[in-house]
Amino acid sequence: MSVQKRWDLFCHVVDNLGDIGFAWRLARQLVAEQAQQVRLFLDDFAAFAHICPQVQPKAAEQTIAGVQIVQWARQSQATPGDVVIELFGCNLSEAYIAQIAKARIPPVWLNLEHLSAEGWVDHHHLKPSPQPGGIVKHFFYPGFTAETGGLLRERGLTQQRDAWQMQPAARRIALRTLGLPPPPEHALTVLLFSYARPQLDGWLSAMAADPRPTALWVCPGPSLQAISAWLDMDLLNGQVTSRGSLTICAVPYVAQERFDELLWAADVCIVRGEDSFVRAQWAAKPFIWHIYPQEDGAHHRKIDAFLDRYLADAERELRDAVIHLWAAWNRGLDLAPAWTGFIDHLPALRRHAASWARQLEARPDLATQLVDAVARLRGERTTVPVANKG
Do 163 and 141 have their domain in common? Predict the structure, then answer.
């Protein structure tokens, strides 16, 4: 059992749900599985409420699932915990950093970075970053190799997934409680949770004209607006409509712990950002990752690096089908031809996704590695006299 420590996690809500989704999942896991005390500082309670309905948006502090949730501005009066985690390079207040510098035993201070499959991540994981005043911050990189910090995965998640998928009644109950009607018989089910992108019309028209029925479950966001424009109607949360072979369901926001069930129920998952990208992989389903776009094109390098790892053992035709669709989706190209090629390989894609998930499951989860890294860094620090911060 790890020694209990006081953890301060900080998260700017930049990607609306991706950043806070990761932060909330990590905070709960540290409490529930690692027996740690966690204080989570957030700057957008309204966005947080989309995935955590219990939150009171106007409360300055509150405790949910054993995690103390605190408004961002209150860090200025806070005494730092034993561990300080900056998520995704968010900037702490000068007052809080000054308190870190004054601490008799400095906290372990980590900058937990965005997930990437790029090779350089292996060499930067847990590297120190000296700060003014003699303080040292370390980088912590999630990743897909033994040299990185791994991926968030709750204890027993894969067993829960497998048991759920073996019970057809569980799928029907989950869809009903999520406000989704049963899909048409033999329908392809597609979950859409993406950023805004152009040229959805051709893809939607192709699914509507396909002899095989498709049920498209659309999460709230810009994609729903684009689909509403194609339908020439305002598709409201919980509403269902059809065009040809295509049935479109507007999925309302769901609590984070229920989102996995949507992934498990779908045949294909189109996901975005950080948290749902990883959850689609744990779902062991064929998926498309709509990465957060960056002006310098760095997101394309991140996609290429991931696909190199993900498709390393794939057959040539399957590899080409995945690369073609991912490129079309992330570069705003016509989706219809790439989608057809992708769906034609669906059985092989399912087998590949399951094999990939098993590979990832063989490595320790991120929360466990994070706690272990903190213990090592704290142990190293306690063997050295505290530096003069004058």
Answer: no
Among 8, 19, 261, 275, the active-site one is: 19
Number of domains in the chain: 2
Q: Is 380 a catalytic residue?
A: no
Residue 388 reports pLDDT greater than 50 = no
Reference 9, options 81, 73, 61; nearest CA is: 81
Question: In this predicted structure, what is the pLDDT of residue 304?
Answer: 96
Please give the share of the chain, as a percent, with pLDDT higher than 70: 96
Angle at 195 between CA 193 and CA 201, to 5 degrees: 85
What pLDDT score does 390 carry? 33
pLDDT score, position 244: 97
| 44 classed as catalytic | no
Residue 252 and residue 238 in contact, taking contact as beta carbons nearer than 8 Å: yes
How far apart, in whole angstroms, are the C-alpha atoms of residue 197 and residue 271?
A: 13
Give exposure, 102-134, as e/b (b: 16+ Cβ within 10 Å).
Answer: ebeebbbbbbbbbbbbbeebeeebbeeeeeeee
What are the φ/ψ torsions at residue 74 (nearest 5 degrees)? -80, -5
CATH number at residue 210: 3.40.50.2000
Give the C-alpha separation, 363 to 315, whole Å.
24
For residue 387, name the pLDDT band (cuts at 50, 70, 90).
very low
In angstroms, the CA 57 to CA 71 distance is: 9
Per residue in 189-206, pLDDT tens?
A: 999 999 988 889 999 999
Q: Average pLDDT for residues 138-160, to the nearest whole number?
A: 97
CATH number of residue 368's parent domain? 3.40.50
Question: At 134, is the pLDDT very low, low, confident or very high (cuts 50, 70, 90)?
Answer: confident
Domain assignment present for residue 390? The answer is no
DSSP-derived secondary structure letter, 187: P
Q: Which of 44, 82, 113, 274 is catalytic?
A: 274
Give domain status of residue 375, yes or no: yes
Backbone angles phi, psi at 206, to 5 degrees: -65, -40
Domain that holds residue 180: 157-361
